[in-house]
Amino acid sequence: MLKQKHYIVLGAVTLATLLLLSLPPRDTSRLKLAIGSWFLPLFGLAGTVQQLPGAAADQVLPRRELLRQLETLRHENDQLRAQAAQAAAIAQENEQFRVLFGWQRQTPWKLKLANVVMRDPANWWHTVQIDLGSRDGVRENLPVLTTDGLVGRISSVSYTHAQVVLISDPNCKVSAIVENPAHDTGIVSPGGPLDSSFVELSYLSGNATLRAGQNVITSGLGGVFPKGIPIGQIVDARPVEFGLYTEARVKLLVNLGSLEQVWVLFP
Predict the structure, then answer these.
(1) For 88, phi and psi rounded to 5 degrees?
(2) What percentage of the chain reaches a pLDDT higher than 70?
(3) Closest residue by Cα to residue 214 from 226, 204, 224, 223
(4) Cross-strand pairs, 115
(5) CB 169: neighbour CB atoms within 10 A?
(6) CA Rg, the chain, in Å?
(7) Where are the alpha helices (DSSP H) in 119-180?
(8) pLDDT tens for each residue of 203-246
(9) Burial of 36 (C-beta count, 10 Å sphere; 0-12/13-18/19+)
(10) What secondary structure, in 3-state letters, does the chain show?
(11) Residue, of 102 and 54, whose pLDDT is higher
(12) Prediction pTM value
């Protein structure tokens, strides 16, 4: 039985060979092309495998370039270590001055976001109501600000809400300092009923050196507003009371007429 199968296979191969030899040259070429296409993926895979070492070699940087990059990294590391040592020395020196002069250590601000939920049309430029209250730890006289600058302070508190008196209200007095070489200090008060985007900076020294564009921030005096909250910028200045004092007009950084969200600053 096994020999019979061998004879059949041998006869089929012989017949196929005779058929191939009897085919016209054109048909033979087509048959070779078809058979060769079956093995193309294998040839391509073999070629790719042969090309891998060459591609990997192209990705390897020359030794000289590696040494140059290593030297650059060592140089940058030395610079960073020197800067870190300098920063540590400055921090130690600042700590010594803080202890020597009794300065208080500054701590990061603790802020809680609140939504403005109500405004009185009759007091649009004076007060707003927010959705934080005593249940949230809010109490009177906490500063209120936005990412642009000072808004005002908490004037009254209920369990779920609080009222904020704005910096444009006469009841919100703020001690402020001008960021100039003399660090001139004054009191912020409303600029008038016609334009709430400006406030007055009063009781400045008569020889205050003020220029348009100088920044005005909270001074930290008075115990309500910590130092460094932006308020606005100087627009112009004029002498008052026979030159004993100077008053400056300050453009507020915060648009008090379109408040939607504010931050309450906790100590």
Answers:
(1) -65, -40
(2) 68
(3) 204
(4) 261
(5) 20
(6) 41
(7) none
(8) 998 888 899 999 999 999 988 999 999 999 999 999 887 778 99
(9) exposed
(10) CHHHHHHHHHHHHHHHHHHHHHCCHHHHHHHHHHHHHHHHHHHHHHHHHHHHHHHHHHHCCCHHHHHHHHHHHHHHHHHHHHHHHHHHHHHHHHHHHHHHHCCCCCCCCEEEEEEEEECCHHHCCCEEEECCCHHHCCCCCCEEECCCCEEEEEEEECCCCEEEEECCCCCCCEEEEECCCCCCEEEEEECCCCCCCEEEEEEEECCCCCCCCCEEEECCCCCCCCCCCEEEEEEEEEEECCCCEEEEEEEECCCHHHCCEEEEEEC
(11) 102
(12) 0.60
Residue 215 structure tokens: 């920044």
CA distances in angstroms from 9 to 21, 22, 96, 218, 241, listed in the order given: 18, 20, 101, 103, 125
- Tokens 């950084």 locate to 253
In this structure, which amino acid lies at residue 45?
Answer: L
Q: How many residues does the chain have?
A: 267
SS3 category, 224: coil
Closest residue by Cα to residue 205 from 167, 161, 159, 243:
243
| Residue type, position 69, single letter | Q
Q: Measure the CA–CA gap between 243 and 205, rounded to whole angstroms.
A: 9
**Selection from 248, 249, 252 nearest residue 232 by Cα:** 252
